[in-house]
């Protein structure tokens, strides 16, 4: 846990309390701060006698060799990048738990059949380059390398001090910090026996039920869109409502409608980015672009929400500007599609047994109720590793279920529990 | 009219047609393009034997002397700055008509009692520095000089290529282009006998009734606000709607409500600028700022809309986040307040008689119906001059009533009519 906060010296974010670790994080993928923590990670892993490699997406793989060199290592992975106003646990915990596992294995002199690796995946958040989990996606050969390399950074985020002033692509950003490795980014070049990931829940279920460990069995589906609403610039003071094609007014109605429709189908719909042009107090905006993030337990539900919103947004656009015969139009672009995922039974079993064992060690009466199976609301690199190798995840509680917020917090106890569970899960898997 | 397009070479904006003049304008106040057109304006007026002075707000006064030097000149004024996606007529027409008037007087060897002046007022649009008519406001001693000098440019507009990358203040921008004059900006230092202004209507009344001239008797009231909605950043994928304090969702509801309330009271309410932070696809925005422009024929109506919206916005904010006991909050800042204005009877009479005469010259049967009295929906520098000296305005029709849009257009005929009416109005006023 002290290492966790140590690693947070690079990219400390918004301060929310007086304590030395009472700040959030702002460590956008491939920023200078990300470079610093990567350098530290590599140095640390080398000191722990791991072999370190970096691939074309900047993914860093550090492997502690096992008895056999002819079988792939079992990996513990997560990410060191954060949201622009992120916290100290999302992703970071997963990599730091991996380091702890390797340290502990070294301390105990534990030998494994295959190697045990720790991986830092690049740009998991999708906050700087707008595809989440993009680098595990390339590794899984689900996202083409060129598409990922050409991704442009999000302008709203680019305006933050940590980012460059002219928009970078992922490739130029990788080059800039010296992390464009030469190993092909693929599960074929860097094979894994399995992938385990420990993460804060980022939701309220564990913490509100006072439970310690979530055995993650599935991840909900999500789709990310960029939408453009095209209306007509005009004067705010001289243009009657019925003569407007106000793209921002259309947007406002769309956002209200999106929540209505998503809620009616047990899904979520959220807008994180909005940009209205030309951006003048007394000009009705003629152009608005915004992001739309739709999620739901089943892929089909997300598709249904999308379908209904496509119809509804068209109707909203058509009504705004109808009076002048020049209604608004709306265009959709799909940036990212992540269908619902079910994790691998073998990995889930290893986690389940390890969680029971760790919680039992804590000698609390009713251990069973301290562990629950859970679905992840957020995406994780484990989503993409699961396409190629057996995968599952471990959740620990976080305060108020809050994440993507500077005050994101998990107790040191819970972090240690998470690390202990993943250590046991890896060992169990290795012995299978 | 050829001069008008000549002056548009500095700051040409979005192209909408094939013709050489088929572009809009993007000449933000105090940009390099604004400097170029100012330099041209001064050179032109000096060549026409006018005396030119520049005050502390960069207002440029060019006076053609009259017989008497002990009485103030009668001024024709408007502005050369534009919206970021503006057209070739808004403001520009008024200054160029002034130049035409001086040229014609020189050509005819016309002597006037007092002098006749042309003034280019700085930052009328309020697009770059968010108070419209700010420099005539300082001249009228309605806005303190220091307040105007310290105004910061709007970030959304500042990101345009014409503006600097770090936000400028009005004072620094004036200095940068060499237009921080040393004459005090005040009606006491630069007195006027009267102020006349010709402008495109920017609305649909003249053009749709096929009328040629609007005798402007009044200007509607408006208020500009900046609002902040403070909610809570959180994860879009793991946070149920009832656990959110989504500042952007609150904004969307507010914008929808603003139109409802304004419409019910015969007013307008518009949002031109919106900024959501942190601006990440998968973070629910915890902070949104936006502009709100409320207008109505009477000052009291605008106040009523404001009052109702303050209540409604509080209610919207209180509901979003109530589930977590941390509802959104909304804060209002008044940037600018322009009460309704009635112009001066003497000036209105001069314009009325001149308009009738010009239209009669055009030898069309029913001249009366070609001229109408009209209220201005937009603010103009004449609003502030009217606080200190007799003032009125002349409107000419514009295509589709469209303004603050690149395709803004008035026919050359209508522009000439406007210039002829203002010439006569000035002469009539001088003879009173
Ligand atoms: N865990 C996490 O926040 N991942 C980012 C991708 C997502 O938005 O779900
Ligand atoms: N005429 C004009 O567009 N003036 C700008 C001030 C306003 O918004 O009314």
From TrEMBL, chains A, B:
The keyword Cytoplasm does not apply. The keyword Hydrolase applies. Keywords: Hydrolase. GO terms for molecular function: hydrolase activity, acting on carbon-nitrogen (but not peptide) bonds, in linear amidines. It holds the Pfam family Peptidase_M20. NCBIfam families: hydantase (TIGR01879). Belongs to the peptidase M20A family. PANTHER family: ALLANTOATE AMIDOHYDROLASE, ALLANTOATE DEIMINASE-RELATED. This is Peptidase M20 dimerisation domain-containing protein. It comes from Penicillium flavigenum.
């Amino acid at each position: 846990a002290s290492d966790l906060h140590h690693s947070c010296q690079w990219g400390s974010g918004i301060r929310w309390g007086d304590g030395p670790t009472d700040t959030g994080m702002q460590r956008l993928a491939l920023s200078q701060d990300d470079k610093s923590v990567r350098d530290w990670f590599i140095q640390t892993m080398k000191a722990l006698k791991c072999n370190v490699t970096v691939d074309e997406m900047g993914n860093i793989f550090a492997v502690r060799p096992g008895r056999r060199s002819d079988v792939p290592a079992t990996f513990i992975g997560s990410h060191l990048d954060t949201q622009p106003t992120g916290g100290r646990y999302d992703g970071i915990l997963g990599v730091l738990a991996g380091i702890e596992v390797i340290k502990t294995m070294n301390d105990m002199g534990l030998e494994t059949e295959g190697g045990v690796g720790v991986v830092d995946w690049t740009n998991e958040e999708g906050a700087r380059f707008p595809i989440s989990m993009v680098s595990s996606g390339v590794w899984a050969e689900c996202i083409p390398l060129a598409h990922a390399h050409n991704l442009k950074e999000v302008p709203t985020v680019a305006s933050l001090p940590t980012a460059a002033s002219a928009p970078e692509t992922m490739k130029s950003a990788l080059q800039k910090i010296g992390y464009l490795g030469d190993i092909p980014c693929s599960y074929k070049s860097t094979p894994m026996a399995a992938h385990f990931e420990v993460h804060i829940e980022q939701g309220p279920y564990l913490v509100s039920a006072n439970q310690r460990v979530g055995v993650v069995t599935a991840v909900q589906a999500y789709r990310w869109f960029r939408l453009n609403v095209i209306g007509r610039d005009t004067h705010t003071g001289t243009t009657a409502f019925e003569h407007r094609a106000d793209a921002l007014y259309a947007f406002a109605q769309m956002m209200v409608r999106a929540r209505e429709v998503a809620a009616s189908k047990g899904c979520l719909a959220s807008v994180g980015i909005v940009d209205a042009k030309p951006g003048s107090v007394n000009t009705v905006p003629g152009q608005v672009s915004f992001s739309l993030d739709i999620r739901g337990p089943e892929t089909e539900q997300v598709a249904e929400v999308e379908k209904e919103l496509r119809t509804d947004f068209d109707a909203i656009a058509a009504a705004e500007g109808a009076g002048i015969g020049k209604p608004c139009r709306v265009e959709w672009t799909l940036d990212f599609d992540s269908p619902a995922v079910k994790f691998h039974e073998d990995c889930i079993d290893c986690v389940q047994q390890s969680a029971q064992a760790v919680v039992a060690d804590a000698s609390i009466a009713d251990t069973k109720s301290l562990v629950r199976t859970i679905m992840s609301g957020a995406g994780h690199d484990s989503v993409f590793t699961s396409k190629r190798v057996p995968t599952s995840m471990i959740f620990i509680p976080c305060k108020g279920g809050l994440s993507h917020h500077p005050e994101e917090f998990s107790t040191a106890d819970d972090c240690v529990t998470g690390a202990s569970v993943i250590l046991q899960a890896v060992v169990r898997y290795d012995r299978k």
